[in-house]
Amino acid sequence: MTSHSDVEIPGDAELAQMSNDELARLGSRLDGVELVEYGERYVPGSPADKRAERKVAFWFLLAGLLGVLAAVAFIWWPAGYEDAYSDRQWLYALYTPVLGVTLGGCILALGIGVVAMAKKLMPHEVAVQARHEGGSAEVDRRTLVAEVMDAGDKAGLIKRRGVLKGSLVLAGGGLTLGAAIPILGGFIKNPWAEGPESQLWVTPWAPAPDGTKVRMVQVDGTPVSPADLEAGAMATVFPAVPGGGKASDAAVMLFRLRPGQAVSIRDGQQGFEYGDYYAYSKICTHVGCPVSLYEQQTGRILCPCHQSQFDVFDGARPVFGPATRPLPQLPLELDDEGYFVAASDFVEAVGPGFWENGKFPAWGSTPKGSS
Ligand code: FES
Predict the structure, then answer these.
(1) Which of 55, 108, 217, 317 lies at a C-alpha separation of 20 to 30 Å from 299?
(2) How many Å lie between the centroid of ligand 1 and the Cα of residue 274?
(3) H-type helices in 121-197, by residue range?
């Protein structure tokens, strides 16, 4: 059976004479569709036609305007890094949202414009598709049901329906729980319950309760002394405490700069270095990847995840990419045996920034260094 058994198919010469409109109608008829109404929605040039055109144009204009604003913001927005204590930090913090809103708005307005154009300006049509009368033939119905049942039987679907039901309920419950737990979790455990000693402020570099300072060790547990690094070198070190090599906030990069290489020290962190040796957290302040690529000549530390770069000559401040805070610096000194130890824990939070960090104390906590 063919869908165009009742339609007379024109010859080649006749086809060549047909207009686009006639060809479109013929194509529809060959598919069993009859165009009952087809044509302009409004009389061209009429007030209704112009009104529809203005509505569509509004969305396209809005899209264009937002696109231009995105470009302007991208080029001229004062996006230079400002720390959390600067009065201009809000300008810096708004850079990404402004780009997102303008670009996202541009795409949205363009989409609405296209839909509006299809609904208001494209030709209006009413099509009727011929269907056979009544339900499907008995033979079609019975064979289709038999195929479905047979597939179910062969797979054991019917017999195991109880198990399937149970597992589906379990899967649905697990999915709901998984989606809800990030929201509910914050109400179950308060990460700030210990105030300044809260988990997010303290790392394994914190001195022991008796004041013993934590030694730096290599991954194999060997203590690190100044002689272990050549000028210009960088080594990853860990705190010599149980589990120190695995703690997510413990990995540190120890740098030995070349003699005479000047480093700008951040306020409140004078004396954190030991001679030409500087130690910075290895945990990226964007979303916590280990920053591990170091270029001696430029002093750039690169995070491979989203390409943030930090300048070791400028207190490990971010100079490129999405990270917004410098890598926290670990204060260094030597112990009695000449090995490096952390003079204290970090004085700021390690890893990804959280909104309470620095300027805005978290609920129930006091930021480090503010008490
Ligand atoms: S985690 Fe380092 S740039 Fe994103």
Answers:
(1) 217
(2) 28
(3) 138-154, 161-188
CB 306 near ligand 1, within 6 Å: yes
SS3 call for 277: strand
State the DSSP code for 334: E
CA distance 97 to 92: 10
What is the separation, in whole angstroms, between the first and last Cα of the chain?
87
* 302 contacts: CB under 8 Å, gap ≥ 6: 291, 292, 293, 294, 295, 308, 309
Confidence of residue 156 (pLDDT cuts 50, 70, 90): low
Query: Strand, helix or coil at 33?
Result: strand
Q: Which CATH architecture has domain 197-366?
A: 3-layer Sandwich (2.102)
Ligand 1 atom with least separation from CA of 321: 3
Per-residue DSSP letter, 4: T
pTM: 0.54
- What number does the ligand 1 atom closest to the CA of 352 have? 1
CA of 323 from ligand 1 middle (Å) equals: 6
**Going by DSSP bridges, is the β-strand pair 252-256/277-281 parallel, antiparallel, or unpaired?**
antiparallel
70-109 tens-digit pLDDT:
898 888 888 776 666 678 878 888 888 998 999 999 999 9
Q: Ligand 1 mean position to 304 CA, how many Å?
A: 7
- Domain borders along the chain are 47-129, 138-188, 197-366
